[in-house]
Amino acid sequence: MREDESNWFSKWEEQLPSPDELMPLSQTLITPHLAVAFDITNNPVINTSPGGVATLQVQHSLQPPPPLSMPLQSPNSGEFDSSELGGGGAAGDEPARTLKRPRLVWTPQLHKRFVDAVAHLGIKNAVPKTIMQLMSVDGLTRENVASHLQKYRLYLKRMQGLSGSGGGSHASSGDAATDHLFASSPVPAHFLHQGRSNSEHFLPFVPVSALQQQQMVAVAGHPQYRHVPHFGSPSNAQFEHPFMARQPHQQQQQVHRMGTPVQNTLQSSYIEDLESGNARKVLTLFPTGND
DNA sequence: TTCTCAATAT
DNA sequence: AATATTGAGA
């Protein structure tokens, strides 16, 4: 038999971080009891600004602890256990099922993961559910992906539009808000052209070397994207809630990982986004690949 | 059911 | 500005 057709897959897997590599960037500069303190009173969180400068903020615990990162223990299909999660706030504990998740923050790394998933699934199979499964990011929902995918597609179309002709950089179609993010990851070539057959399973894929350097390579003639913030700066360590105790009880992953059952679940962390006096909770799924 | 897309909401 | 939510049609 051949060397194999699944070779690309192996390489792809290799590219993924191993469970050990997951920890380093944001773990634990924080002691368990400090973590415990989160639940009682102040919740110190780091807001990572694009410059790599971390800002420490304090969040008054008006809100109950986030519903996510629950260690789904029993096969119970219930999303969350409503033990104490609803109780913390002021009047009225909402039905735990109706709890609102914090907004997801699509970091460049997370987006890259998204792009990788889409690339390897092939355009045809790249539907929200499948993408979500392949990404295997803890706390990521299908709707998160669907929403992102929708915007991403618009981005791709926009890109195709300005291929070749005169080339003003302004596609002022009104939409183009998240282009920075999208530009942060290289767009696999076949995304831009035409819908492919499902049989492009053997992508003429770029060598790993190319994959690993996802530096500020903006897409052809595109506005420069600022440096991706380095997360693990010694001086501005990130506090990480030990939330990630979550055991992926996730449904049987339909996506067969050929050889090694990689289990790379991203860590999730909640930060508060103080926006002009209006604070809203956001969820950041921290990247596993620092690349 | 899930997907996709446009519009709209937060 | 960036995501989420909704609603309609496939």
Q: How much is the average pLDDT?
A: 55
pLDDT under 50 segments (min length 5)?
A: 1-14, 17-91, 167-173, 195-265, 287-291
Radius of gyration: 20 Å
> What share of the residues does DSSP label as strand, in percent?
5-15%
How would you classify the quaternary structure? Answer: single chain
Helix content: 25-40%
Determine the number of helices (DSSP H or I, runs of at least 4 residues): 9
Key descriptive features of the protein:
single chain; 291 residues; alpha+beta; Arc Repressor Mutant, subunit A; three-stranded mixed sheet; two-stranded antiparallel sheet; 5 strands; 11% strand; disordered N terminus; disordered C terminus; DNA-binding; HTH myb-type domain-containing protein; transcription; transcription regulation; Myb_dom
Can you describe this structure?
With 291 residues, the chain is of the alpha+beta class. It has a domain at 104-160: Homeodomain-like (Arc Repressor Mutant, subunit A), CATH 1.10.10.60. It is 28% helix and 11% strand. The protein is built from nine helices and five strands. The chain has helices at 7-15, 19-22, 32-40, 108-125, 128-135, 142-161, 179-183, 189-192, 208-212; strands at 43-48, 54-59, 103-105, 267-275, 278-286. A three-stranded mixed beta sheet has the order 3-5-4, with no helix packed on it. The protein has a two-stranded antiparallel sheet with strand order 1-2. A hairpin with a 2-residue loop joins strand 4 (267-275) and strand 5. It is globular and about 50 Å long. The relative contact order is 0.23. The protein binds a DNA duplex (10 and 10 nucleotides) through strand 3 and helix 6. InterPro entries: Homeodomain-like_sf (IPR009057), LUX/BOA-like (IPR044841), Myb_dom (IPR017930), Myb_dom_plants (IPR006447), SANT/Myb (IPR001005). Residues 106-157 form the HTH myb-type domain. Residues 61-99 are annotated as: Disordered. This is HTH myb-type domain-containing protein. One of its GO terms (molecular function) is DNA binding.
